[in-house]
Amino acid sequence: MTRRLKIAAAGAAGAAIIAAGAAPALAGEGMRDRPAAAHEHAARGQLVSVRHLGAKSAGEVRAWLATEGFDASSVRYGVDSYRLVYRTVDARGRATVASGLFVLPRNGARQLRTVSYTHGTTSYKADAPSMAQDVWGPGPAVTYGSAGFAAVAPDYLGLGEGPGVHPWKDVPTETSASLDMLRAARQFALREHRALDGQVLVTGFSQGASSALGLARALQEGADPHFRLRAVAPISGGYDFRGAELPALLDGGIDPKMSVAYVSYLLTSWNRIHGGIYEEPSELFREPYASHVEKYFDGTTPGEVMLKGLPGTLNELLTPRGFAVLRHPSGTFAEALRVDGEVCTAWTPRVPLRLYKITNDDQAVTANTDHCAAAFRARGVDAPVIDVGDQTYGGSRHLGSNLAGTAMVVRWFAGLR
After folding, report:
1. Strand pairing partners for 154?
2. What tens digit of pLDDT does each residue of 50-75 get?
3. Whether pLDDT at 13 is above 60
4. Can you tell me the distance from the alpha carbon of 357 to that of 48, in angstroms, rounded to the nearest whole number?
5. Nearest to 403 by CA among 219, 255, 247, 236
6. Distance of alpha carbon 282 from the chain centroid
7. Over the stretch 242-265, which tens digit does the pLDDT of each residue have?
8. In terms of pTM, does the model score above 0.85?
9. From CA 116, how far away is CA 218, in angstroms rounded?
10. If we measure between CA atoms, which residue out of 230, 282, 219, 261 comes closest to residue 362?
11. What region does 160 belong to: left with phi over 0, alpha with psi -120 to 50, or beta?
């Protein structure tokens, strides 16, 4: 869940998922791909190419962040930003590539603490953090980089320069893409005569909050000997789709237009990944939407086009069978919901953990965070829930929580030694 549209669409306050903004990009000199070493092989995390996206002084970073409402009080240094393309695996374990944003502070430090930030929902390839021509997409990574961290922000599969279609809300591939992005960042930092110290502070927003917990779990379980989990701080996640988010989508707890967008993305994405949800879109989606809905979420359709093309309510979108799938999950859909929720139910964090939320969240209802915290506490984990306050962005409290949460998390991470 996230924003990519600055204006309300079809009356939806904060219907801000998914379209390119108009603020200035963090682009600049050096827009040239640099191929990785000639001895490339198929190892996961192997660099394929690097593009320098530009450099900014600390003053320029402060001014740039302020244009979109990001808190610049933690800015200490200028930054260099890079797009990394690296080897990873797809949802079936086959070799592929993905891209991501890597931000390094211009502070001269050779040893750098690392923050992994996983972004919220976007359906358009060009809106991923390493590609976005606005501040929203790369803003959190630049916030962490300018505070002195090496900031790693994967685009996920199928977004940015990654081929194919993004498997939305698929924590296993979000985890593998995030882990392999860390490996690629480590390689590139060494080429720049710098080093990641191996301790990873993990955060993410909305869709990326679940991704963050998935990465944290993998790191704690020893997925890579070079990296160790240090702390976890996800923001406004949709952690419990079955128990919290789907009921809100169906019962009017979320803006109707946003419900249409999320339900469409979920059903088309999970049918691609898992199969068994429908054979033809017309089984779940009414015409004329059934003929276009998969195209809207294939990565090539700008978000504003998708939002205009979809109806305003679920009653206009779904057939009776479509409603039945959501109200009574079974088969592969039920199994996918179970796996999605395991980020809060199937592991026991052994590092400092904070869950950030905003009350009356208009997209990822706050029951998601409450349920996740309860699941961790049931496993004996201290899981404090931090309310980020009353900030909004584009009329959306959910989107505002990314701004406020990022400001709080960077301060918390900076204080952990």
Report:
1. 100
2. 999 999 999 999 999 999 999 999 99
3. no
4. 37
5. 236
6. 30
7. 999 999 999 999 989 999 999 999
8. yes
9. 13
10. 261
11. left
